[in-house]
Structure formats: C-alpha cells, structure tokens
Amino acid sequence: MARLPRLNLPNIPQHVVQRGNNRQITFIESTDYAVYLDKLKQYSREYDVKVHAYVLMTNHVHLLLTPTSTCGVSKLMQSLGRYYVRYFNDTYQRTGTLWEGRYKSTLVDTERYFLLVSRYIELNPVRANMVSHPAEYTWSSYQHNGLGKQVELITEHELYKALGLTPQNRQRGYRALFETAIPTKVITEIQSATNKMWVLGSDKFKLQVEAMAGRRAAPMPRGGDRKSLSYKRQLKINDSDPIDF
After folding, report:
1. Number of domains in the chain
2. Burial, 76: exposed, middle or buried (Cβ in 10 Å; 0-12, 13-18, 19+)?
3. Where are the alpha helices (DSSP H) in 98-202?
4. The Transposase IS200-like domain covers which part of the protein (predicted)?
5. Is residue 141 predicted with pLDDT exceeding 60?
C-alpha cells in the first residue's frame, strides 16, 4: 500500500516522536541531552518552528511543535537528526543508523488536545517509572512550564499563557493540570494518532484538515455508520465555519 504523504500545515501544532532504531539508547551522558537540546534550539530558530513542550527519554524523544511553514518541522527533524547521529557516532566510536526510520507525527486540535498532549509528553518519565513526578526529571519542558526555570528553547503557546496573567500564575495553573490523571482512553488516542500519523482532534477538525491538506486525516471506518467521518466527508464543509488552531 502506498504511503500517505505526511500531514504538514502551517500554524497547526504537531506532536512528534522519534525513536532509537530497535529501541536502542540514544542518550547516554548528560552532555548528549544538552547537545540535542542546543541543536533543537538552533534548528527551530533556523526553520521558524516554535517548541512548546519536549521530553528526552533514554531511547526516544517527544516534541510539541508549531511550524510557520508546511516544511518547517520536516526540515527541523532532518537537520537535527543528521547532526545528532554524527555527534553520537563520533562520540561513542560507532557507525550506522541511530534513529528508527521516519519520525512519527500528528496534527493536534489545539483547543481540545494541546494541553493534554503537553502533559502527556512531560509525564513520559512517570509512566516509565523513572520518577514519581515530572518535576523530578531534568530533561523535559516541565522545568519551564511547571517550575518556571527559563528554557530559551521554549515558546509559550497562547493556551499556556491563558492559564494566568503572570508567569507565576501560569506555572501554578499548569501544575494544577497534573493533579488530574489523563484518562487511559485519551492516552491511547494520542498514541494511536501519533504512531499511525493520523490527526488528533474532533471530526470537525479532521474534516477541515482534509480540505486543506488534500488527504485523509483518519483511517476509513468499518461498516456503514452514518455518523462516521467517512459519511461526513461526503458533506460540504462550510468555508465560513471557523477553525481554531
């Protein structure tokens, strides 16, 4: 089956995941994490991609990004991946690939899922039983978003800024979000949409993405459910109907 083109639209957040090949370790020493983040900052500025959240695990990374162009995220990930492979191979006297093929990504319905995905990303070390709270993990954006440590890499999204009028109030409001667990169903939804590179959002959002991108935003449903996205695709999308990114 032919591979669908990647969904890339300007000014719509993307959840990006890149894994080590065969789940091999991609970060060994603290310097490795620091180099990756430094280059992420460099290339995000070069390609005008905003970084809102991240976590660097031992064998994979999660990023929440908003590009200003259709090719911004692709160029960022390509440049970052190539640089880091060279650095890692030179540092540890190895050869060959490091990353597992193409990175995975999904467009994120801002109003419904943005802060959920940000929490999902920063809770990775907790789900992996590495720490009991995201504040205990050094290599994630929770250090900025939740604790107020200045991370130049981070661009605060408007939804994050809406949590409070001052930085302290925003951090307090953000920390409060972590007092409620993300439902298992939502975690599965985030993982499925990202791994299969579909769109994470409402049916309305998916339909509007399809109209802009010219490709399916979700798998074809089974059966003949008239309430399904497949049925709704056949309806005309009202161009005057606003969409929130």
Report:
1. 1
2. buried
3. 110-122, 124-127, 142-145, 158-161, 167-177, 184-195
4. 9-124
5. yes
For 151-186, letters b (16+ CB in 10 Å) and e give bebbeebeebeebeeeeeebbeebbeebeeebeeeb
Instruction: Tokens for 208, please give them.
Output: 């509007």
Is residue 213 included in any domain, yes or no? no
Which candidate, 86, 15, 52, 45, places its Cα nearest to that of 158?
Answer: 52
Is 94 inside a domain boundary? yes
If DSSP codes are grouped into helix, strand and coil, which group holds residue 83?
Answer: helix
Where residue 66 sits, what CATH number does that domain have? Answer: 3.30.70.1290
Q: Which residue shows structure tokens 């999904």?
A: 106
- The pLDDT tens digits for 158-213 are 999 999 999 999 999 999 999 999 999 999 999 999 998 889 999 999 898 888 88
> Which range of residues forms the domain containing residue 112?
14-201
